[in-house]
Amino acid sequence: MAIMPAAIAVVPFGLLLGAAAASKGLSPLEVGLMGGLVFAGSSQFVAVDLWTHPAPWLALGFAALLINLRHVLMSASISSKFGSFAPWQKTLAVFVLADEIWAVAERRALSQPLTPAFYFATGVFLYVNWLVWTVLGTVLGAAMGDPKAMGFDFAFTAIFIGLVVGFWQGRRTGFVIAASAIVAAIVEKAVEGPWYVLAGALAGIAVAAIMAPAEKAA
After folding, report:
1. Of 48, 103, 126, 168, which residue is least crowded by CB atoms under 10 Å?
2. Boundaries of every domain in the chain
């Protein structure tokens, strides 16, 4: 299954998130509800980090919104591949959209039409997988220790490097990746908070838009 490497990579992070949430006083049910309703690991980690009693709802909401703004860009990109999806399937597809699902679906769409069967098989599998390990993490995650000690922190990065290679279409791809990486790195150092995620995405989009007319003219 195309999503299996990502599903395996989220295991230690799901356990770690569950353990961190439990240390803040969240129950397995609350952790499961958070993952089931939000399904966004990065914003969940930020939310757990900010969690206090009483919870700072405004700060939590703003942080989640800021981090997940990239989903607007991913939705705009993947929506053009939903030609065979019914309206209700498109709505559900956006709900289970995650970075890994987007990347795998886009890669699939390069070689053949994206079907509801493929999309939901990958999306639902990763969704359930994430919920299972985060809930188990409330009990077992503390035993994992620091995932960096075993190199698990690089798992997501390695997956996306492999996916980017699959998207490679010549020098235009290289310029887009370079622009995104450079701008994201600069913003991450200069501005506090996760603004670098949105800045890097917008920089890559800008470079792709600028280079497109030139390539067509050539």
Report:
1. 168
2. 4-167, 168-218
